[in-house]
Batch of 2 targets.
Target 1
Amino acid sequence: MAKTSLCDAADQNLQTSLASFFRSMLGQDEISAIMAPMRLPAGDMVMQTLVTNPEQVDQIDPFAPAFPMNAARLVSRLTKRPAGGKVVVVLRPCEIRAHIELVKLKQGSMEDIVIAGIDCAGSFKNTDYKKFAEKDPETSTARFLKGVLSGETRFDGEVDLSAACRACTHMVPNGADLAIGIFGMDIDRQFLVSAETEKGEALFDKLGLKEQDAPGKREETIESLVAVREKFKNEMFEDTRSKTDTPEKLAAYLSGCINCYNCRVACPVCYCRECVFVTDVFDHDPYQYLRWARRKGKIRMPTDTVFYHITRMAHMSLACVGCGQCSNACPNDIPLVELFTATASQTQAAFEYEPGRSLEEEPPLAVFKEDEFAEVVEVKH
Amino acid sequence: MKPKIGRALVVGGGISGIRAALDLAETGYGVTLVDRAPHIGGVLSQLDNQFPTNQCGMCKMLPLVERDAGSQYCLRKGLFHENIDIRLSTEVVGIEGEAGSFMVRLREQPRFVDPEKCIGCGECAAVCPVDVADEFNAGLSERKAVYLPVPHMMPNTYVIDPAACTRCGECVTACPTGAIRLFRQGRQDFGVLVVDDEYTVRDSIKEWLVEDGFSVETAGSGEEALDLMKKQPFKMMLLDIKMPGMDGVEVLKKTMETFPDMAVVMMTAYATVETAVEAMKTGAMDYLMKPFDPEDLVSKVIDVYEIQEASRGEEVEAGAVVFCGGTEGYDPSTGKNTFGYKKFPDVVTGLEFERLISGTGPGGGQLVRPSNGEPVRKIAWIQCVGSRDLQTDADFCSGFCCMYAIKEAMLAKEKGPEDLDATIFYMDMRTFGKTFQRFRDSAEKDHAIRFTRGRVHTVYLDEKTGKLMISYPGENSQRIEEAFDMVVLSTGQQPAGGMDKLAQTADFDLNQWGFALAEPFAPSKTKREGIFFGGAFSGPKDIAESVISAGSASLCASVALHSAGRGMAEVTGDAPEYIDVSIQAPKVRVVLCECGSTLPGGIDMKAIAADLKTDPVVENVFTIPRICTTEGWDLLVEKAKAKGYNRLLVGACMPYAHARRLKELGEKVLMNPVLMEVEDIRAPAFRYADAEASYIQKAMERNLRSGISRLRGVDPLPKTSVPVARKALVVGGGIAGMTAALAIADHGYPVTLVENDPELGGNLNWLARTIEGYDVHAFMDSVRQRLEKHPQVTIHVDSSVMSAFGEVGNFFTTIETGSQSSVETLHHGVAIIATGGGEAPANMYSHGENDAIITQKELEQKVSDKQIDVTSMDTVVMIQCAGSREEPRNYCSRVCCASTLKHILHMKKENADLSIYVLYRDMMSYGFSETWFTEARKAGAVFIPYTVDKKPVVSVPGDGSNVKISAYEPLLDANVEINADLLVLATGIVPSLPESLAAAYGAHVDADGFFQEAEPKWRPVDSLKEGVFACGIALSPRSVTESVATAEAAAQRAMRILTKSALSRAGVTARVRQSLCSLCERCIDVCPYGARSIDLDLQKVIVNAAMCQGCGNCASECPNSASVVDGFFDGRMLDMIDMVIE
Amino acid sequence: MEDFEPTIIAFVCNWCTYTAADLAGTSRQSYPTNVRLIRVMCTGMVDPKYIIKAFLEGADAVLVSGCHPGDCHYINGNYKARRRMKLLKAILPQYGFDEKRLKLTWIGASDGIQFARTIRDMVSEIKELGPNEAKHAAVV
């Protein structure tokens, strides 16, 4: 059973109390830095920031509905090789899950980090966040959280939570060392801190947190939120599948794609140094284009668009955590996360694999059993 | 100049012959491999499924290092290695000389089909009017007189069976390439002289022979004949004996004086037969008795003609000869009890069963009753047909029938209806090999195969039901009758035909059963220096043992060649300096073979050429009438010599055949052969025989396009290689380790031997003699002394391996020695693990509670020290399988039953009145030790079987009286009580291979702690990790002689590596494009050969080019083509997919 | 639809199924002309990309065929291939590439008849199913 504690929100302000909580962490000898979403000095954007000076933790705002990139890519950068100090990383659940997948792929490690995961209420698309935040930057996070906790998904009558978040059922930070909870809490008064691992417990003790039980309505709140999202997810999958269930329809769905590969750059689990689609494998002879055009009468240029997206599904759908950064990154607003999660739900089910669930679970294609999947093999006598 | 290398002759192209030939070829020797059959593979070419995978896997025998020297395709298609010269339809007829320099005379069967010209189209067989039993299908189907010996063979050259062929000539006419010569044409030149004083006789003979194409002259008298001979040459004379004037004998004498080569056949009446026989001493070849059938006479002349014309004798030089002639299957129709074989079609032999269920078999793999084609629902196997049978002079166990019967029963379950009932009737299930017992258990438990103990007496047909009835003794000796749809006779192995003659020719001895006789403790050695045996030639063996035995034989041959000064020198012919085209854009020249006029009509080569030329990468397209002819090849060379292109695509048939010649072409025109491809453009005409020409033409175009596509992406890479530390490490100094070390040292390479104990010898230190009576200690001493004196051997006793790491060619092992704790690190290229094993502890049957209860080892020692006085005893009981063959030690230890028999015979000799009871589960007296089982029963020992659920019970009375054993006796259906003076427990063998030791070398141990071989049949002494081998008991329980065989086999595997200073990278090998690699290491996880590793300092994934086999699992696992397999680059593959879809 | 002749791309392993396909040829086991063989060393070498590419180019069906379990020349490549096929079967049908269009079989070296039969059966099954829509779509 995890140790839990309730931290009081000073001045009824979640952000300042979070700041002092994290500042106290930086006060610990073994913690060299904290990486957390912070408000940038100029403008309204919130970005992951690596802080070593306790005095500069004030701008921390992990619950802000801004999700400019999946931080697993950053954690990977910090942990790929020894960093020479321990870093507390403040992550959303989908970032933790993506990091676990990256660790399995040897793109990062758990060695020198303490993961402080947050209850995730979701976020807007980048453009929507700007619209939402500029109305009142100071109170935007609080406005947002209150709205979400009271069941809202549409804000100011104009911006919605991103599709990825509305369909996300992984709202609590499984896999974190320390979990910071807001669901079922009166966030004006307090937030929940629970130690989920030995590492987390050590820090919990060092911080001198006193053990208190989580409020009973927490589970209930989470369940009802998940139920809403589950429903949305299923409808989204159904809708997406009906829009892409033939090659022609899929092509139409992806017709805006300009082969910029931003989606894969933004994807936390697309870990290749360089995507195969930009290597010499796809460096076709000019003659080839003419041949294709001749064969089919006409051919869409640039080519290999659908090929790219389906191949990407083969490569990463098993590790897809549904964070939605692909959609965020698309310059032409192709609803990619809908497409990818709909497929990932199938591939993950096929192998009973859930990305980010456990470090112990091998990526499905790296292993095999002699006696399995008989249904895949056509047997004739 | 190429230095002279040794050459060995391997006789027999079955599995052991292939193994021996490949081992020697990989070691660097030249090999001549002969087989009297027109194909290689022996009986294996007829078997699709092998225990324990019940699949094939024969290809795993192919070279793993330096594999470009040989073929990389299914062994059923044939074997190719640049050091192996294969002679089919060829026999050895003489061996002169001595080890190091034998002259071997070979005789090749007449060849009627020119393999250079035959394109395998089968037009000949389509018109052949002759039907004969097809031996490939064990006689279950028919073939033509012109036929494919095995359907897979590549190139698929047809052969003519001279015995069946009527020389009608239909095939000659039908052959589109003129590949068949029946020598009929040549008969005109074959002059026959017929000499007889009776006009009608000589005239009708002339008429018959002229009709068959011979040119014939006649003579009415001896004088006339001699005159004619002076005027014109004759090849043959048919000579009457009784003639007025000069008689036949006189003519013969005179003829022989002037024409000693003339083939003379005497014609004789009954009265002068003796004279005719006499005449043969004078030089006549044969005689014919009057009156004769025209057919007999003509066929005699044809025989003489063909032998003269066609038989090509040849002498080859060989430093050593390895006989791998295999065995023959027993034919039950020749036995006293035929079990209805050949009488009832549903009674078949094991081999026939294999053919029946084979995809290439007579029924295409359907399991149906031969009598009526109905599905088989109930099937029985009868064991020991032609084995363990004194009536057929087979007082030996064939050793492999039990396992093949279980396998066949499992296959029947798989191929037959779901409710198929399979029963095996047996005396003892001899599951003595590694994993065999578990296989049997699984057959019984998981596959519901019924095992019934009892000798079947009769098989008869129930006319009413059409079922086969089997009668066998049940419990209480009651007779049981049971009906089956099909009965399979598990026929055993017999010495191959012609052993006597061969033994005489080669000067080796045969044992009492007619197999080749091996020397004591030297399983592959004959009495004649330089002549060796491999495989089942010297006694029945299964595949794994044959492969081990072949390795042992090739090792002995290698030592013989080496000591004759012919070994090991590397052939370092100048590697051609190919023209560097790496910076040029690809330009493909296409040369198409028009294949004579054999392509179907309507195919327009010009249109194909025009179409190809639309691709800018194609430089030009040429056509050549026939590439397979010498002129055609010269034309190709000419086309290849021209400039202006840098890739060559040849469109022809039989790419297998041409691909080899590309290397030669490359040397001529200085073009790297990887820049050339042969694309099969004939295959579409075969595959789509019924399609329209336009379709076939399209298919040809597609094939050529994919060839172009492959060439477009080729990027010749510099040859890299892995250097080899040419030293060996052997861990374990028992007989296996000592033998292996000595074998390598005898080739002149340094060997370090590490032994835990303060003394070498292992189990041989306590083992006194073998069942045959050979002196074990004397043998051990001779080996040890040779080893200790050997300049290349370093021995570390009282030492152990502390740590080890590395890969083939370069291992690093740290050895710790004794109390001084001196530590030394060795750099070596191969590691042989020979850590042995010992007797399993006796923690059952009250061992330790009474001095009269001892183990087999204790008995051996007490007998040898004379601590046991058998003469004063009344009763001895022996319990077999004490703790063996059931979980957790569910394997047979192989040696205990033979050891029991040895002790019985010894004790009975000392005290004939001694009562000996053996309580056993299955007597595992496999091979020739069956004879000792027979002897032991004759000597009066009583054998009582028990089952695991009814084990004997041992009680030790507190009063010091005899040990009591109570056992269930099935024949009496009652318990018997035996008071024994001595109870001997056969506890079996346990290995002493530390898991960590195996792991240090990248190898593994199996469920029982023995060394995990790479493949139980095809690679029985290798680990999956190249460069690591095991032998002796570390591998599995074995007798002394069997351990020697494994040690020699392991040494031979090691020699393949040690004889090279570097192992070079093969063409199809994976590599890493480092700039793309994200170091996710998934490729390392999926590599089955452990060929990949990560270098943490360099931050790079490294591929060991010698270990990589080019399977491409790494490449398909790598998401961004950072891992690529040369020859299968993704860009090229995608391009090819494009090309073939059109 | 009468004239529809499906195109089947068969990725066959060098050791077993390629031998079987050859055997089907030499033993005159005629099989439909619809199949296009692409020889690979091992089914474990068949990159999912190849299969996706084949379908997008308009292949009506793809067959991947190699050695039986336990018989893989490369020890276990066929087991890994089976997982990749499982993956693709979870992806492709969603986009209208019917699962029947993608098959994995184990065909041993001696199973020439089985190879011919497999192709024949596939052809008739795909004829019933109709052409792959991507054949005429202007996309890859």
Note: Chain A has a mean pLDDT of 93.
Target 2
Amino acid sequence: MLNKTLKWIAGLALLLGQGTVCAQGNASNANAMVANSPHNLSASGPGAFRSLTVRQVCVFCHTPHSVKADSPLWNRDDSGQTYIQYGSSTLSAVPGQPDGSSRLCLACHDGTVALERLSRLPDEMRGRASDKRLEGSGNLGTDLADDHPISFVYDSALAVNSGDLAHPNTVPLPMADERVHCTTCHDAHDNSIQPFLHMSTVNGELCTTCHLEQGTTWSWETSAHATSPERARGSDPWPERKPQWRGSSVAENACMNCHASHNAATKQQLIVDAEEQTCYRCHDGGLAETDIKNEFLKPSRHPVDLTPNADHTAEQVEDPRDMRLHSECSDCHNSHGARADEPMVVVSDRTPGTINNQAPRANNLIAGVGGISSDGGVVPEIQDQFELCFKCHGVPGESACGNSRCSTARAIGHTRVDRSYNLRDKVDPNANPALVSYHPIVQNNPFNNDGVPSLRTELGLNTTDTLIYCTDCHNGNDSSAGNGSGAEGPHGSIYPPILAKRYTLSTTFSAPGSASTEADLCLSCHDESRLNNNTGPSGSIHSSHELAGSCITCHDPHGSTVGKHLLNFETYNNQIPAGDDPRITGAGSYADPTWIETPDGGECWLSCHNSGEHLGSRYPEDLGIEAQMRMQMNRLGRSPR
Amino acid sequence: MRKIHALSMTILLAACAVPEQKPDREPGRLPAWPTASEPARIRWQSHVRQPEDLGIKARGFGRIWGALAGEKQQGMVRPYAIDVQGSVFAVSDPGARMVHVFDQNKRRYLQIAPRDEHALRSPVGVAFSGDRLFVSDSDAGVVRVFDLAGDPLFSVDSFERPTGLTYHEASQRVYVVDTLANQVVALSHEGEELLRFGERGSAPGQMNYPTHIAHHGDTLVVNDTMNFRIQKFDLDGKFIGGFGKHGDSSGHFSQPKGVAVDSNGNIYVAGATIDRVQIFSPSGGFLLAFGGNGPGYGQFLMPAGLAIEDNLIYVADSYNQRVQVFEILDVK
């Protein structure tokens, strides 16, 4: 009996002497905190106050030192030993493995004494989120990949290299041996900030201690996700967060709106749900008023649903010039910096009679995202909207029209005379000095871009310095570019390829003057009656001609290296002739369909589908001596000029 | 080269349940314990990280549902519990949320990874029962039962947190530890609850967060983890006895997890934070400890579940992402 008491005094003395938390400061206080928390594993359980001693509460984690180690009966040479359990981070020499005090946490949080899945999905969420796994993820071999990393050294070198980590000297959280452990975020003794946190996650207080999210054109503190007071409407956007852990608004939930420090479904950046599903939790017309989720159900859309995406790694090192093509919300939006702003649309019914002249400036909706600039270089933060689009659709050297980077990306294969399909080369004269005419997205050029009699100058548009956004045309059909009042942005549309208004890409014959049913999109800026009724060449062409299909047959919506007025005839050269030859070819001595511009008009040399041959047909029409002479000369095999 | 070797070994050792595997980095000699002048009792035999280690080629994968999910799982993420039946052993892997089944004789590998509402969220216990496989999912609070091809048969959901499992062949009962309820529940082969026993406390016979369970003859051996002791019960739950001391030294328990019993009745207990397996006599005398912290042969990083069959002990070496197999040597 006495022996036992002596043992206990010795044990207790050793325990307190080790400077454990139980002994720090007010020992009975620490005791009381643990005693009332789930970490009180004593058989009496939390809340039941008997005469609490160190034995009853602390020992479950703080293993008491055995006064006498047992000698193994099968090895008399061994007099017994004390096992080193944790404490030294150098104990485990295997990099990437949990070490130090984290091992103690993991000893219980292994799914038995305590659950290893430290967030818990309510029943109806099962199978929706966390059970989606990422294919091809090489990280599957390291288990803790879906949890915040631990057992790594967090020193000044790391802070400098990462760019968005605070210097460790400014981080008032415990890091034994300069390493991040479970104990860096969690205080196992004190559950006053649930769950056992040193600081709260409300308003991102804990996370922003280490993670500083800001850039040149954006910062977390002013972003929508950090400041929005919106609360849940309808379904709960934060089902994994226990009520005691979370705030009630977007701003209060802060980082935890999208991130999960444990059991993240998208491991690379610890996103709580499977990629875009995370965004849909709010951006489905519920908490966030605009239903973006619905946009991605439309037939023509950015393919964010093609998951999983293994390109977005934790290191964020994707180089747009050689990355695999992919599309996720985070490729266009920086969720740490984005905030609400005016739609990036120049011509719309929102401001009838005037235009929004902010083009091409990228506003807060897409601030803080990388792109490819006019000169083909990578920019870490875009200034202009087109730089974002060029990131995928204007990669230098990518011109094969079979991926979706080319200018008329449709399975029916729109080939054109200029054989140029890289969008940057189509709209950016800096990238492509050979451009003759182009929609003014990057620049306007009064010399080349004149000759647009249909332009609705009464809106304020001119051919000298007007600039438009990509999103004036490529936008959701409910957006302001489509004269709607719904979701803005090129997420998805009922009109391919993600167009705000109808623009028929079919090639069926239609009656002259019927552009209004085929090309609503063009008519946002171009007036149809002026097209048909002007006395210049375009009047006679458009009014007298039975045009095949819509504007698209002759005009390239982006730019042309072969003609003014965006003339760049479709050729369908990649279609195999069968029956009616679908191709549009040149005529006379011109291999390709060609328009020759003259001071008073021009002439057309082409043949549509092996018929309707134009041998220098003049516009305005003039079937006088000159034309007959021309046809004669052609038959003799001489070029007209 | 390796293929031929494995094949010839199979022919030579056709009578044995497990063909001997040579490690790919030959240590000086196979680790054995004790290391000094005393005769060896435990000797390292092999380790398994992925099916190839058993000579099972990638083409031979049988995959249930995993193929539909497009999941390529090479190797184990966090192997936790093991059970062995003949030449087949199953490893539950809560890190990968699946159960790996290795058939060493037929050279087949199967993943049991059901989807959607039947997904295994935290499979921490596994037990063969003849033609069935019982898997406890501690997070879902359910024990799921599969056939040996991996197809689901039924589930039992009358648990708070089911963890350790053991199958008593003579009575055809599966005993399930319910950690949160501090009870052990006996299920019939059909999943019908037959009895349950246990309550929270530290008195003899009571339990505090029990986890793993094994049996020897007609005695159940329960790892009463947070009472830092092993307790024995008969098949109807009557307390027989127990042993265990709480401490950080050899022969003591700190975070005891896996438990298994060999043919002599000696009890093996895995210690998660001491990176060793300790062996005790049936009455609790400390016999030996083997292992040690590290990634090498015969070293562990937070070992968890144990299983013994045919004088081989399988250790789920959790954070080394492998199973290690040791021989239990007879010493006269």
Note: Chain A touches chain B through 57 residues (CB under 8 Å).
